[in-house]
Amino acid sequence: MHDPLPLLRDTDFPDIIRKRLETLQVNLGYRCNQQCFHCHVNASPKRSEMMDAETVELVVECVRASKVTTLDLTGGAPEMNPRFHYLVESAGKLGVKVIDRCNLTILEEPGYEDLAQFLAEHRVEIVASLPCYLEENVDAQRGQGVFNASLKALHRLNRLGYGCLDSGLTLNLVYNPQGAALPPPQIELENAYKRELKSRYGVVFNRLYTLANMPIRRFGSTLISQGRFDEYMTLLRNSHNPKNLEDVMCRSLISVDWQGYVYDCDFNQMLGLPLGAGMKPRTHLREALLLGSEGQPITVADHCYGCTAGAGSSCGGALQS
Length: 321
What we know:
This protein has 321 residues and is an alpha/beta fold. The protein has a single domain (5-308), classed as TIM Barrel (Alpha-Beta Barrel), CATH 3.20.20. It has twelve helices and nine strands.
């Protein structure tokens, strides 16, 4: 696999600093029941990295000690971590909103039959990957049979009230392009998703988030192999919108890896870029005082243009209407 980092380090991306910290995003491990082409984590069923019980407990302590309002759980498939339930329950008791970044198909895996009910009981917000409303496009990007398994999971969630009006159970979907292109306008695509999923399959949801593919890990390596890395980076740079700098996710979020090390964002985590513009080689979550570090510089490289190109891209979708 090619390493895109040497092609990203030399950057003219603008300097940015952190605002007040609101979200602790925690990667519970790189193991996943899927292996998607666009995955910036390079997750797969073969990965063994998993956050241990001691580090999970440290996450709970940091949530308790900090002023974060959201615990954002990701992976791999975060639900495959044996401490997932404990972490959700603990955060709920602390009054913190929990987001589960779910690939949907995990809800249909043997041994996870009660997962959807658990998420509903604890009112976990679900952000679910569904890169298209057409079977052939989803299976081409994420693997044969993924679309049908995702549909079964969506129907299961709808029956529990997820995505339904006034239920209080939020189901947001995520779209990302199949290749080296920017996402279309979010609101237009959301309307198309709602129309097509409802009419074709009877599925409802709350919001659609459009995300740009980041030129790192598996996707970045593929671009290099295809000789398209420079082309894609030129697209991202030429589409840079400085208005997006105000609301990029790293300004109010800190990312924690499966070992408890802390980064400015999930993408920097995957590249191994240290927190705070490289002031220290690596920072561990034990140094909890950093969680209040408003005004701290953020480590940037050329991949950051993926978050500011066009309408912008973040964990909450487009940054501009």
